[in-house]
Amino acid sequence: MARMSPSADSQWPTAASLLGDFPSARLALFGLHTFATSVTPRSSRSTPDAIRAALSRYSTWSYEDALDLEEGGGIWDLGNIADADEVSREELHQILAQADEAQLRIVLGGDNAVTWHALSARANGEYDQVGLITLDAHLDMREGRSNGSPVRQLIEEGLDPHHVVQIGLADFSNSAPYAAAAREAGGTVITRAELRSLSIVQAALRALDIAGAGGRRIHFDIDVDVVDRAFVPGCPAAAPGGLTPDEVRQFARIVAADPRVDTLDITEIDVDRDENENTVRLAALLVLEAFAGVLRRSA
Hints:
Blueprint: E1 19-20, E2 27-31, H1 47-54, E3 61-62, E4 67-68, E5 75-80, H2 89-98, E6 104-108, H3 113-123, E7 130-135, H4 150-157, E8 164-169, H5 176-185, E9 188-191, H6 192-195, H7 200-211, E10 217-223, H8 245-256, E11 261-267, H9 278-296
Helix pairs in contact: 1-9, 2-3, 3-4, 7-8, 8-9
């Protein structure tokens, strides 16, 4: 059965209408569909394009903040980067610099190798004023270069692990040697078990305090496999018992509201596995939550 498109209604603008050529926008995004070095083989089909399409399923109105995102000036869509796995740091740095006036720049993955690409390009070799927050079931401390190694790569390049906060780590989704490496590095880990006794607000504020201490700028990585597998069939490595979509959405809006957060990535979605578009629709909502968070900065 063919899918029906949302009906045209002048009084119900879709969130897809927020995307456009808006160089003065407070929010910018571009697609970086990495996949070639994934630990779990996946499709080359563009996740960023699927997320953009999924925005048409939603409106621009936030009940929580009594705010229409249309008032925020739109989202500057910079398109997709070709040959994402081989893109140079210099090219990505130039793209991010092009949108330097935006308060938040979103990178749509792609697998979690995007986090290394985006943050290394954002820092451009100068990590002394950068922090990292990840929502992820995995430590990403693997050896080599893959979607399982970005945190280790960044620390080895100079990112201070004392300003790295990893949230949502799951049982039976990591190894003892990599857990030991993370402890030795000195980063902060908030496991899924610990989140049972913390509110999302408490966890988000704690992460911001650590990653952004001393006025550091923060990169925020949302690896969607932190979510319970039942909700994200398009995430190859998601496991039962992860966070709920609502928890991740709440976390995204809180963190994006902090002015120290200036780059964000959304990763680990394989469109070909994504039954009923459940996963890309959540990713589209995370874009909208981030936009709402940015607008809170001036509320």
